[in-house]
Amino acid sequence: MVLTEKHKELIERIGVFHEHKGMQPLVGRIIGLLLVHDEGEVSFDEIVEQLGVSKSAVSNALTFLQAKGRCVYSTRPGDRKRYFALKVSDWKEDFTKELENIAEIQKFIDEVLEVRTDKTPEFNCRMRDFSNFLDFFKKEIPALFERFKKQQA
Amino acid sequence: MVLTEKHKELIERIGVFHEHKGMQPLVGRIIGLLLVHDEGEVSFDEIVEQLGVSKSAVSNALTFLQAKGRCVYSTRPGDRKRYFALKVSDWKEDFTKELENIAEIQKFIDEVLEVRTDKTPEFNCRMRDFSNFLDFFKKEIPALFERFKKQQA
DNA sequence: CTGTTAGTTCTGCAAATACAGAACTAAAAA
DNA sequence: TTTTTAGTTCTGTATTTGCAGAACTAACAG
């Protein structure tokens, strides 16, 4: 597949977006490439060529993406190459994980509340409020997907 | 205020948590200190002493936190020191921002769908599904807070 | 057995990060 | 006016990051 300027520019922006989420630059670019690539599956070599980076960098980035469960590869009979693709299948799972990750702050809030004295009742009250909300939020996640399903039909 | 080992250890863990979110180490530690500190407000000097870091590092970190709107300082009559505190007041706003930030991926998903051919209908379909969900999700955020309010009462 | 393909692991380095320490600034105190 | 206080900005540096390139490995091909 030949990438147009538009493709390349979009890949870069998707890369930067993922960099901001803490991923290393190339990892974000690879996600971008796998997203815009027509065939869905992209060979190791093609990633190297399209992004103009070294094999070692691609190898490490793909190992990372696979470890994170964001990417898989398949093979074809009579072809030793690996074809990589994103696991868009379980976006619900991924999204849930991200939401739960945000809510992880609750664990700390609760620990903080345990060590705090009652010198600052308003502060403590707000924190407890926030903790209660996070509790509520986590429980609401499944319901969220259900409401979406209903609304779809 | 004298910090116990428990306090210090909790500050470190809160620091690491924020590092994973892309903040620089000291910024995370300062958030931790402001969270566990009894008085709620902590002077510049005390931050320097409690965390054992340089004034310059603290100055930069606090400038960053204030720019991000996560921290404010107040002053006291006849006292030139600045007392820093977290802005826990608007956790709803902060949380909303974080959720919207997650949903920002939708912008890219939609752009990706525009440049993709229909060679991979299933992939495209899943992406469209995800985009629709993100749409739904963003609209649901205010309702989420409302349901929490109701449940509280 | 030798060569080739496809990818991995190791080594090194250029650039970015995160901080220390010193010099500096602005305002209040003496 | 000089000094002190409280914090900022500048300069240098140790550490970490992100990648390139080379050496290596495993499997198949000739």
TrEMBL record, chains A, B:
Q: Which keywords does UniProt give here?
A: DNA-binding, Transcription, Transcription regulation
Where in this chain does the record put each Helix-turn-helix type domain? Answer: 31-76
Q: Which Pfam families match?
A: HTH_11
- Kindly indicate whether the keyword S-adenosyl-L-methionine belongs to this entry: no
- Tell me which CDD domains the record gives: HTH_ARSR (cd00090)
- PANTHER family in alphabetical order: HTH-TYPE TRANSCRIPTIONAL REGULATOR MJ1563-RELATED
Q: What is this protein called?
A: MarR family transcriptional regulator
Its source organism is Algoriphagus pacificus
Its ancestry begins with: Bacteria, Pseudomonadati, Bacteroidota, Cytophagia, Cytophagales
